[in-house]
Structures are given as structure tokens and as C-alpha cells.
Amino acid sequence: EVIGYFSTTLVLRAELAGDPSFGELLRRVRRSALAGFAHDRVPFERLIDALGIERRLGSSPLFQTLLTVHTQDGSTSGERQFA
Fold this sequence. Notes:
Layout: H1 22-37, H2 44-51
């Protein structure tokens, strides 16, 4: 038996070029999220190492905002929340 907190950090890019409307931004984020979920088996730490990104205490090397998605039953979710 294992008890603990397990999570998968999935880094997504939000492209704001062209001053998109809110609806267009949601469509862009949805496409990015679905593409990211297709590659969610790659651990965040391995991605950082493969990209050769320097790690610093106090900040994340790839993102400034973190979003956690939960299903109605309280479990964390993935693609089905964005479908």
C-alpha cells in the first residue's frame, strides 16, 4: 500500500500573439492541452534534463502559473476535462 501525493506536471504554452479574443484563446489552450496530454508520460524532470535547462531555487524553469484540475469526485483529471 502506498499513501502520498502523486502528480504529473504538464507544461503547456499559451500563445497570445495577435491579441486573440477570449474564445480564441480558449481554443488555442485546448489544442495545446490535448497535444500535451498525448505526451504526458514524459516526466517533467526528464524534460528539464533533456532540454538542458538550468534549475534555480525559488522558480520553475518552464512555467510561471500552475493549474490543478479535479473531477467532480475529487480526483485529478486530464484530457476529459478539456474535451
